[in-house]
Amino acid sequence: MIHIFQNYWGTLLYGLGQTLLCSILALVFSLILGTFFALLEESPSKVARGIARVYIEIFRNIPLLVITMFFYVVFPLYVIKMNGFTAGTIGLTLYTSAFIAETVRAGIQSVDSGQMEGARANGLSFWQAMRHIILPQAFRYVIPPLGNQFVNLVKNSSTLAFVGGFDLMYQGNVIASSSLETIAAYSAVGVLYLVITLPISYYMRYLEKRLA
Amino acid sequence: MLQNFIDAYSPDNLRYLFGGLGITILVSVVSIIGSFIIGSILGVIRYVKIKYFSAIVGVIIDVIRNLPLILILFFTYFGLPNLGVKPEIIPAAILAMTIFESTMLAEIVRSGIQAVDPGQMEGARANGLTYWQGLWHIVLPQAMVKMIPAIVSQFISLVKDTSLATIILLPEMLYRSQIIYGQNTNYIIPMFVAIALMYFVVCYCLSVLARYLEKRQA
Q1: Chain A contacts of B67, Cβ < 8 Å?
Q2: Which domains can be identified in chain A, with CATH numbers?
Q3: For residues A160 and A83, is the Cβ–Cβ distance under 8 A?
Q4: Touching check for B80 and chain A: CB below 8 Å?
Q5: CATH number of the CATH domain containing B122
Q6: Tell me, what's the ipTM?
């Protein structure tokens, strides 16, 4: 396995970079989208709640790979050309945003309802109260599950390998087929994934314990 | 456009796709049963803290949990032949899914057991049950009730994750839809609609079940 690192360190590092870049981009965008849909779900408007519900149910119940393939195969034909990395990141963002919406909503609900009543009684509008009073408190509860979502994102970013996204998994396949040392190549890739995911999941477990 | 849908959903194509759904369900059900049994055993091992053994099992669980499923699929399908075992595609997919999902379930089971009031075990011991009897008859049944919603949502992920096995050419829905639209690009959208719907129906039913169980328990 060590000679795989020695011979292919450039390829592996490039893949690791793409995996991290895709995961971080998807985390940022899905956090924005997810919070937006969580707010819609908590909003007083029935229509908004319905839209949010449909969005979340669709993206939670369809496999990530189907969403990614949709952007990779259908979009270039009818809408706009995009490479595997873009298609993969969009798929990952939409898929994860549905899960983040659920997480953020649970965070909002765990904030004492007296906070909203107090804010409204003091003359803030619903959205002002959300923005300044509820969300800052909700995010404290949301951080450990968000960390776990990031671990899932890094693992799920391996679907980029299906669409030629040049991520770690893709490079692992390239190395496995060019060196013919399947087990060593995939082990090297596995080690690199663990370098990212293990510390985060241990840290999140520690945070969860401390918050509980 | 409508004509594309009508052509794409010809009886032959639909039969072929539903065959894929059958394989998805077969792989899911076998992996669900396997990972439920193995995951429960691993979770208990991790909870009871047998000297060294539980720690080693814990490390193995954490390593597998934090790897992508695709990598584990590659290990079982392309890696095992190097060790002299050559599994067929369906057993390889089931093996990989079972290994991966049982580590996920082990974590759910462990935290479920930990959530049971320690007074239950103390009471069982005080009434003359051994540690294992207390665990089996008193603690585990209570923990299982608490864990059911989390377990069902893990099984939803499992069903969705079977689509990843297209990478080792498991002939399930997604793979078969690709073969169909590979023959005629007009079929691309109808095929995506069909498989998205099929996955959605299966997973949505499971998530309604999860929500029902959650409500009944609360």
Answers
A1: 155, 190, 193-194, 197
A2: 2-211 (1.10.3720.10)
A3: no
A4: no
A5: 1.10.3720.10
A6: 0.88
